[in-house]
Records
---
Amino acid sequence: MKVIRARISTDMEKNIHTLDWSAFQFPSEEDEHAFRQLMPSIDAFYYQYKGKTLCSHSNAWSFMTALGWIMDEYDPEDYLMWKFPENNEESLELALKHFDWYYEYSDDANVWRRGSYQEAHIKFLMKMIPDKGKELWDKYCPKGWTK
């Protein structure tokens, strides 16, 4: 599984008018290189709002998600760990790890719809790797959860 660790510099979180690559911090040159290869350009972070040009550091996270990267967790140094699954087993493990097991109890239609899509994706992946899929299911499924 590919992993990129990154975070937004605390100095840049308050500055919404300018942005350069120093807005992002990386624990290694490899992480920085991989991140920069994914981003279209620093100009992609700027947008117009009420006639003003602003920038959004978090647009980088939207780009990562759109490319199939999954925001997984923070490491001990507070770098956000982005993961890109390279096979069905890795995809299933991340899907189960981040699945909202109780989405059906939500009153929010968007939560329900997202959970329903995620569940269908999990079922599809489990059919692709039935033995390993059952093992991963048992690892992540909450005790007493029934469907």
---
Amino acid sequence: MLQHATISGRSPTACSKACASASLWSPIVTMTNASTPAVAAAQTVTGSWATKWFVEFESPPAADGTSAATLTRERDRFRDAARASGVSYKQRFAYTTLFNGLSVSADADAAGELRNLDGVSAVYPVSTAKLDQTASAFEPDLAFAVR
């Protein structure tokens, strides 16, 4: 069953910039080997730590005016291309509202192959960011609130 989720509260550009600056999403990842040239100075990720990925498609998300039919066709085209290429991955979530893409589980080699599929604009490793919740941010000092 397909699961849908959205990134809420920001435009796609603002969310991309905010996430990148907060280190929630790592830079664009392109996997390469000796016979494949690197694309646009992208980083190569190695190691078994990266097993969850955001796959971003070329079309803008629904919030930017892309029709639901176009988003569905793009997602179906991705699945067909991955199947035809023999790339092994497991879909975790599908995003359409503020981000057009999927979250998948796959090894690093498969992520590199996904990046090279037609219609994929980027592949980002999923990482966890810890929010530092300091007491002063959540417990206001009310003594200064009264005049």
---
Amino acid sequence: MALALGTGAILLVVLLWELVRPTFKGALTRVRLLWSLRRSASPRLGYDPGRERRAELRARALLRSCIDERDWAIYRDLGFLRVWGGHGDDRRTDRRSMGSPIVQRASYAYLIYPHKPLVAYVPQTGALLNEYCVAFPDLSRPYGSSRLPDSDDVLAKWMALTADEHRLIADANMHLPGRQVDPGRVRRDLLRLARWERERAARDPRAADRAGAGADPRGADLASTDPAGSNLPDASDRAAADRAYADVRGADADTLHA
């Protein structure tokens, strides 16, 4: 009786092993394969925590090589760029000025933030006009991300804006101020920009003279602007900005802010 039970137990174990052996063998093969791939994977194919930092450093170096020294100093110290509207400042020579250039400042300008919309404003008053949403994704999608380094995003917007302002603004999604960028932040940044330019002019008056139209047209008057936005533009300043802005948008000035 005991011999029969022992023989039956052995046969049962053998049958169960034959049933589970293919599954166990396949699982073992997969584990070995995954382990070998993990051990043989090259370090350069894995995630590099310093990659984004190095990409940003390269992007900053490229941005610095493309823009002038004053704009680079603004971006380095304040974290944004200021671009004059209407192809920048218009310099012309007048005989009455003994051959020195007469600067006609643009009636509107843009602030460029990393991965934020372009913010248009009136330099003479600080009034905010519109936000323009534009995107320049990284089509190579490293590690599944399409986000450019901050400085590359700023450079792409700067190049598009200075190369063909009309086309960029016409293709962008326009929104009223405050849609994505806090108006309070923009006004604080304008105050910081005015303070930065005053301090720079105090340190090196010759640099301020060479910059000419690079200085903020509002000058010291901006320091007295209410950060809450109570300093609104007068009718003449707003009308001039609207006319210039309408030329860029291809719309009538009367319907620009309707």
